[in-house]
Inverse folding.
């Protein structure tokens, strides 16, 4: 409710403390995020919400970190926005239709900021930015993402965003379609296409989160790769998102915009 949010925001300003709720706290990313928030200066973990828990007012949180599953995420984010709580979202599955619906909701709450982050790892963000820069120089490009087999969606949000950035850069450079003479692929061996870019997903026990982008030209290949071996690698980005989301009202897609790395 507006009155409650204003009271909490004023208290946070006076004490220089941001009150944080983690939604999806029982998951691997969520439990890591709880530890990161508890260890960070100027942040206070006020609510740890597991699957099936009622969200309620999230204990008066200023910012919620949303780390659940694609089917639950839009409803959780909408719940927060309605109550004036800023949201940092690490859940994937945010397609264009979901983003547009969120923009419409935020139009009624112009003071609220929502960050949708396909990846929080600084190295992964740099990997996407480097791939976007390289895209205009190469005729061929493919994206390969590799994750643990418990991941429920494919391709990953990072791979999909990388392909969209590459596709847009190729269009701006006047490049045509990626060359591919394949005419018969009943099993889908050539992978998915995201904005015209081939994307392949690997699910293998022992992996965490990995991606490589392969660029090919006559006589050469450029590989840009990032590996997260531990979910701790995502936490500096999560904390940066929590600290800055209130400074960016409306919808922001990609942590790079908070880091000065946006296009």
């Amino acid at each position: 409710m507006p009155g409650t949010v204003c009271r909490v925001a004023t208290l946070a300003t006076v004490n220089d403390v941001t009150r944080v709720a983690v939604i999806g706290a029982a998951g691997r990313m969520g439990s890591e995020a709880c530890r990161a928030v508890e260890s960070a200066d100027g942040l206070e973990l006020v609510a740890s919400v597991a699957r099936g828990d009622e969200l309620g007012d999230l204990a008066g949180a200023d910012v919620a970190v949303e780390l659940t599953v694609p089917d639950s995420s839009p409803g959780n984010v909408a719940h927060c926005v309605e109550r004036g709580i800023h949201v940092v979202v690490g859940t994937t599955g945010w397609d264009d239709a979901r983003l547009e619906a969120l923009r419409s909701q935020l139009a009624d709450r112009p003071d609220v900021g929502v960050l949708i982050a396909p990846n929080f790892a600084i190295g992964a963000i740099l990997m996407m930015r480097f791939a976007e820069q390289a895209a205009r120089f190469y005729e061929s490009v493919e994206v390969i993402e590799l994750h643990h087999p418990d991941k429920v969606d494919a391709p990953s949000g990072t791979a999909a965003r990388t392909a969209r950035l590459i596709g847009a850069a190729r269009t701006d450079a006047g490049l045509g379609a990626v060359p591919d003479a394949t005419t018969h692929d009943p099993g889908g061996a050539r992978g998915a296409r995201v904005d015209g870019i081939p994307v392949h997903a690997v699910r293998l026990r022992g992996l965490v989160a990995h991606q490589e982008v392969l660029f090919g030209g006559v006589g050469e290949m450029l590989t840009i790769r990032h590996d997260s071996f531990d979910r701790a690698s995502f936490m500096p980005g999560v904390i940066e998102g929590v600290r800055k989301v209130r400074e960016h009202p409306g919808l922001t897609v990609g942590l790079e915009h908070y880091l000065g790395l946006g296009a």
Remarks:
- The first helix runs from residue 2 to 15.
- The radius of gyration is 19 Å.
